[in-house]
Amino acid sequence: MEKLIDVDVNTIKSFSNSPESILTQDIPLQIAVASHIDTPLNLLEVLVNSDILEVAEAAQMHVNYAGELKENWEDIVEGKLKSRYLGQNDRL
After folding, report:
1. Which long-range contacts (CB under 8 A, 24 or more apart) does 25-34 make?
2. pLDDT tens digits along 76-87
């Protein structure tokens, strides 16, 4: 698993005028932006529609997109994890 890169608010703001431009960036940057607490809804909406599963899932689970998960959040996360491909070491 790749380490999540650190992004700041200025990086996120740089995509505010053209949110679609985030999709031309490296996947680790897209995931980091999708996971950042200050990512606005308009940028998350672009990331949710990404062809990259990891990017789309990170954006879907963001509090600014999904809202507060008050009930059954454990089931939602468990469902996401169970539907993922598991490498050989993860199955042990």
Report:
1. 27/52, 27/54, 27/55, 28/2, 28/4, 29/5, 30/55, 31/4, 31/55, 31/58, 32/4, 32/5, 32/6, 32/7, 33/7, 34/58, 34/59, 34/62
2. 667 766 666 555
Give whole-number Cα distances, 4 to 17, 30, 70, 73, 74, in Å.
24, 10, 26, 22, 22
User: How does pLDDT run across 21-74, given as a tens digit for each residue?
Assistant: 999 999 999 999 999 999 999 999 999 999 999 899 888 888 777 665 566 666
The helix/strand count (H/E) of the chain reads as 6, 0
Whether the Cβ atoms of residue 47 and residue 64 lie closer than 8 Å to each other: no
Do 7 and 27 form a contact (C-beta atoms < 8 A)?
no
Across 4-23, b (16+ Cβ under 10 Å) vs e yields eeebeeebbeebeeebeebe
